[in-house]
Structure formats: structure tokens, C-alpha cells
UniProtKB/TrEMBL annotation:
The keyword Nucleotide-binding does not apply. The lineage of its organism: Bacteria, Bacillati, Actinomycetota, Actinomycetes, Micrococcales. CDD domains: HTH_XRE. This is Putative Xre family DNA-binding protein. Residues 1-55 form the HTH cro/C1-type domain. It comes from Mobilicoccus pelagius NBRC 104925. One of its GO terms (molecular function) is DNA binding.
Length: 82
């Protein structure tokens, strides 16, 4: 969620105001200290105009760099480095 917020040029306070929560809640969501209700998760997706799986996942998203390393190694017939 932090990536979406930063890419949108929003502060935690601005996102919190749009969601109707306090900025501490946004921080807790971004750190993974708090899990949103379904209603809050849907609101986050509406703010950023993304599907739910683009904003939330059970496992952390893989870094883009790691994906490129793996794709490059596969193209060259090499074993990917993690």
C-alpha cells in the first residue's frame, strides 16, 4: 500500500482523510501491523483504482529487481540468484 500511496504523491494524512481513518492506521497497514477490514480494503482499492490483489496479498510482493534477475537468468539458461 505504501508504494501506491507514494506513487500517487500522497501523504499518510491525505490517504487517511480519503479513507476516513487516522494517519496512524495508514502507517499500521503499511507496516503490516494491522489488517484492514474488507470495507477498508475495498476503499483503498477505490482510492488507487486498482484491483484488490494489486494492493493486498497474503505473501509479500517480490521485488521488481528480483523478478528481472530471475527472468534474465532464465533467458540465458542460468540458475536465478535470489
Amino acid at each position: 500500500m505504501r508504494v501506491l500511496r507514494v506513487e500517487a504523491g500522497m501523504s499518510r494524512a491525505e490517504l487517511a482523510a480519503l479513507l476516513g481513518v487516522n494517519p496512524q492506521t495508514v502507517g499500521a497497514l503499511e507496516r503490516g501491523d494491522h489488517y484492514p477490514s474488507l470495507d477498508l480494503a475495498m476503499s483503498v482499492c477505490e482510492v488507487f483504482d486498482v484491483p484488490i490483489e494489486a494492493a493486498f496479498a497474503r505473501r509479500p510482493f517480490e521485488s521488481i529487481a528480483a523478478g528481472y534477475r530471475r527472468a534474465g537468468a532464465s533467458a540465458n539458461g542460468e540458475e536465478a540468484l535470489a
